Structures are given as structure tokens and as C-alpha cells.
Predict the structure.
Amino acid sequence: MVESLKRLKRALCAFLLRMKIRREANAAFRYDRRLFMRNAGALHPERKAAAVSEIVMGYHVLEKGITMPHRRLGFGRDAACRLADLIDSFERRFGKGDGQVDHAASVLRAYRELHRDWPAGMERLDAFLAEHPCAAAVEPHVRRADFFAARESPFPAFAASRHVVRHFGGPVPRETIERAVSVALTAPSACNRQHARVHAVCGKRLIERLFALQGGTRGFGQDADKALVVTADLSSVRWGWERHDAYVNGGIFVMNLAYALHHCGVAHCILHWSVSPRADAEARKLLGIPGNEAIVQILACGLPPEEFDVAASPRRPLCEAMVWHGGAG
Ligand SMILES: Cc1cc2nc3c(=O)[nH]c(=O)nc-3n(C[C@H](O)[C@H](O)[C@H](O)COP(=O)(O)O)c2cc1C
């Protein structure tokens, strides 16, 4: 009788705890939703930071195009004109002098120089560049040996040498991938719960179908030898406020994996998984990923060719990225 009462009490406590966690999770998701709706740049394009982001995405598309393996001249003409319009509009509203916006103008000049013999349709760009007398952005062309030269260097030099690569010249041995994933498993995780999992995808057809759902590999995905799908196990999430934990821990793991791949000499490109619920469900079906694993990101991998181009992707200065609180420090 006493045992039964104890069991009943335990079951009731577990039930009440689950109710509490459900309530917390609902409140947390509502809070996130409100924050998103009030602040996401996509919904508030009039804000300066949102306008800069739109311009960064605009120049990123062109930088990618300029450095793409199967580049065909004439690419991105509409995107280039649109970027010129965005920069003009930005400078009218917020003035000149933003480093990222200045870089966007330099990318437009590099684009124009690449198309110096292009017959027509560049009038808008020429008018813009006449008003913006900047130098052309330099998109590094590197030899494989130089790109990986800092593999054993102290961390600042090693970190500065890592870049995503969209040129793949051959297959990566399975053992190399396993070595990189083993290193990536040193990533920290909340309470050491180690949420991350890696699904290694081989075979051209399967990779192609996965990338078609992802949508960010046009022009280079077809050359990838393997795709690494990083997931995080939602079973490791312990309470409602931890609603971001799969993605936070998964994201930390992805960064560690990117460094590990770079250290192992593997060319890789991190790929977003900001897809519709339908695409997410289709990817799960395609690869047999169970419902308890949240797909976090994908990495396209391959051996790098002897020489290749890398997008410059310059960073903001420290003063724009860091804020001190509570005194001089
Ligand atoms: C979360 C995330 C998602 C990304 N998604 C894509 C993508 O879909 N396609 C792509 O070509 N690059 C993608 N990238 C690569 C970024 O464009 C690249 O990391 C960025 O421009 C900085 O360049 P770097 O990594 O060479 O320093 C992604 C990177 C991250 C971190």
C-alpha cells in the first residue's frame, strides 16, 4: 500500500513537471516569436542594420559568383544593378562611411572589371561607379598548399586562414572525415550532454537531392564528394527554457567541425538549414533522420583542387561587434 502511494506520488510529480515544462516552453516560444516579429530585419527593412544586411547579402551573391568554379560571364547582372540601387538608397538615408557598404561598392567594381568587354547592359553600373571611385575588391586566388599552410599554426593565424571553399576537386577518404568528426567531438556542450550527431551522405544522386532541398549550392554543389548533415538530439533537452539548445550546441559543434575539416585539409562549405518545414520533412525522409534529431546545418565537402578562388568576405571591425558593460573593464 505504502509502495503504491509512493509510486502514485512519483507519477503525479512527473506529470506536474511535464505540465510545467510545457507551459514554460509555450511562454518561451511566444516570447521568441514576439522578439522575431518586432526585430527581424526581413520585417523591418527600414532600419539601418537591416539595410546593411541586405547590402552584405547582395555583395555576397556577387562575390560568390566571381569566385565560383563554373563561372560564366554575364552572371548576376540584375543582382549587380539592384545592389547599386541598394547602396545609393542606403547612402541617401544613412550617409557614407560604412565599411561593409564600401566593400559592396568595391565588389561592384570588381564585377565590372571582370565584365570589361561585356557589350551592353552595364549603363546603370557604370553610372554608379562613376559616383563611387573605389578600388576593385580582391577575391583571393590561392594555391592549395598556401591555403592550408597555417594548419599547424597558433590559433589566430589558423582561424584567419579558414574559409569556406566552393571548389571541390576529388573525393575525401572516409577516414579523413572520421578523423575530423572525432576532433569536432571535443566541442563543449551544455552539461556535457553532447547533442550533436553527424549523418555523412555519399553518392552523387543522394547529395544532389539533399542540396535541391537546401537551395544554397547552385554552381558548386554538384562537385561535392560528401555532405555532412549535423543534427542535434532533442532528447537531450531537459527543460522549457532550453528551446534553443539543439541549435546552440549544434552550432558550436559545426564551428568545431569546420575548423577540424580545415585542419585535415578538407575543402568544405557550411550550408544553412533555414528551410521550410516541408523541405525539412523531406530531408528526414530522404536520409532516415529520426524526429528527435533537429537538423542544424550541412557541410559540403571535397578535396580541394590545386588552385581555387575564395570569396573575400571581409569582417566588421571589433568596435562594431563588441560592447562593454559596467565600466571601463
Ligand atoms: C549558418 C551558415 C549558413 C551558410 N549557408 C551557406 C549556403 O547556403 N551557401 C553557401 O554557398 N555558403 C553558405 N555559408 C557560407 C558563408 O557564406 C561564409 O561562411 C561567409 O560568407 C564567410 O566566409 P568564410 O567562411 O569564407 O570566412 C553559410 C555559412 C554559415 C555560417
